[in-house]
Write a structure and sequence with these properties.
The protein is of the alpha/beta class and 496 residues long. It has two domains: 235 residues, Rossmann fold (3-Layer(aba) Sandwich), CATH 3.40.50.300; 237 residues, Rossmann fold, CATH 3.40.50. The chain contains 17 helices and 22 strands. The strands form five sheets. A six-stranded mixed β-sheet has the order 6-7-8-3-9-10, sandwiched between helices. A hairpin with a 2-residue loop joins strand 21 and strand 22. The longest helix is centred in the middle third of the chain and has 16 residues.
Length: 496
């Protein structure tokens, strides 16, 4: 019998039907992969399971008994817990406070028992093999990867019956991904029912036993994973065959657009030197903590380097702020789109037009029609899936939010665009659209820096590849007969 069963679940929002008559069963000691394009309804279903949304129709049973998940607290109390792609924790609280927020151990007078909480947090962290994270550490002082592991520890801090893993490996290194796989094996052995959401097919086939496929808010397939090929899964997911080969393009390199000399930071990176030409994609590869994202933030003026120079179109710039970089023609699509990329609460069209207000204004008065026109032009090119451009950007799926962030910077018509993990958390169909669009950009003469942890993406899209290790440029490769093993060896410091 399933641990958790959803029958006939439907959910609609103004102007959009997110889910229609879907079913889902999660079995004890098994992993069920939930697969679908961005906008297929996966995030809505997770929010229903965690009590954030209530369904318009349908029923939910837990161990055969009907339940009503009326709030996040009620779902948590019933043993349903989630590990999200974007960490939803609090930087100003300690690791222990984040793990036990809402269910901290208390003493006789009802006050928090801090000693017991820290001890329990240590035990929970040890259980998932991350004892290097200390309970008293302020969460904001941790790396993205370690914050993600704290989110895992929070999910493990209760005796969960159902564990939802929403892109759990997106921000983790190869070693940490292995630890997540070990955690999945442990949870299965304990009889937990696991819902695993991922766009990585190799990952799905490694950990999952069953699959459920959503498309456009409807259930289109389910079954035992071992009986279904990847090609069949892709066809179910997108409703068509998808050419997974990266777009063919001719590399027509122009003049040097960006020149970076001796760029250094006191703690993150040192002595970075490289050039970027018009019509070129320069890939940045490295393990978690190599300093790639930190270097991109310095180029964009979000952090201050200790020394070095940045030249755009032969003009020396010293970006003290993002505004300086934008005016110079350099823009940045960040890895953390939820915190740094979108303006939640504003509609899609305002997010796209926000950096281009002079373009959509006349006599210092914003023109709604021009904002809409600008947003429509770039979101259509990126195949954005939304009910309308007036929809709150925060209600979009993660992949569609990423498309909005890319669209808003392309509207600036920059000379250089930095794409930090541009397809992180994006489904296979949307990845193809982003890759095609990148090919169009460089064909039109734009210069692109692409930071990616995905080897196929680095090898499939880059003209040259810079590999960083421990804050330094370890190697620079021309992408001619370049193999994944060379990149991994350079990133890990392993001699050939």
């Amino acid at each position: 019998m399933p641990s958790l069963s959803l029958q006939g679940i439907s959910k609609s929002f103004p102007g959009v039907r997110a889910l229609h008559n879907v079913n889902l069963s999660l079995y004890p000691g098994q992993v069920t992969a939930l697969i679908g394009e961005n906008g297929a309804g996966k995030s809505t279903l997770v929010k229903i399971l965690t009590g954030i949304y209530q369904p318009d129709e349908g029923s939910i049973t837990l161990d055969g008994e009907p339940v009503a998940l009326t709030s996040a607290q009620s779902a948590f109390a019933l043993g349903i817990t989630a590990i999200h792609q974007e960490t939803v924790l609090f930087d100003d609280l300690s690791v222990a406070e984040n793990i036990y927020l809402g269910h901290a151990p208390r003493g006789r007078l009802g006050l928090i028992d801090w000693k017991a909480m820290n001890q329990s947090a240590s035990a929970t962290l040890a259980k998932i093999h991350v004892s290097h994270i200390k309970p008293a550490t302020r969460l904001g002082d941790l790396s993205i990867a370690n914050k993600h592991l704290v989110a895992v520890a929070r999910a493990m801090s209760i005796d969960a019956r159902v564990v939802i893993m929403d892109e759990p490996t997106a921000a983790l290194s190869a070693k940490e991904i292995g630890e997540v796989y070990d955690l999945v094996t442990l949870l299965k052995s304990q009889g937990k029912a696991i819902l695993f959401i991922s766009h990585k097919f190799d990952e799905i086939y490694k950990v999952a036993d069953r699959y459920t496929v959503f498309r456009d808010g409807e259930l289109v397939g389910e079954g035992v994973l071992a009986n279904t090929s990847q090609n069949d899964m892709v066809k179910l997911m997108v409703g068509r065959s998808v050419d997974r080969v990266f777009p063919k393009r001719k590399s027509e390199k122009g003049d040097v657009v960006l020149k970076v000399q001796d760029l250094s930071h006191p703690t993150e990176f040192d002595g970075l030197n490289f050039e970027l030409r018009a019509g070129e994609i320069l890939g940045f590869y490295g393990l978690v903590g190599a300093g790639r994202t930190e270097a991109m933030k310095a180029l964009f003026g979000l952090t201050k380097p200790s020394r070095g120079s940045v030249t755009v179109n032969n003009e020396l710039i010293a970006p003290k702020s993002a505004a300086d970089a934008i005016l110079a023609g350099l823009v940045y699509v960040p890895e953390e789109r939820g915190n740094q990329g979108i303006a939640a609460g504003l509609p899609i069209f305002m997010n796209v037009s926000l950096p281009s207000l002079k373009q959509t204004s006349k006599n210092n008065v914003l023109r709604l029609s021009e904002e809409m026109k600008l947003a429509r032009h770039y979101t259509e090119r990126l195949d954005l899936r939304a009910a309308s451009l007036s929809q709150d950007v925060a209600t979009l799926s993660g992949g569609n939010q990423q498309k909005v962030v890319i669209a808003k910077w392309l509207a600036r018509q920059p000379k250089v665009i930095i794409l930090d993990e541009p397809t992180k958390g994006i489904d296979i169909g949307s990845k193809a659209a982003v890759h095609e669009f990148m090919a169009e950009l460089v064909a039109a003469g734009m210069a692109v820096i692409m930071v990616s942890s995905e080897l196929p993406e680095i090898l499939g899209m880059s003209d040259r590849v810079i590999v960083m290790r421990d804050g330094l440029i370890a190697e620079t490769f021309e992408n001619k007969n370049l193999g994944a093993e060379q990149l991994v060896r350079a990133a890990a410091g392993i001699a050939a």
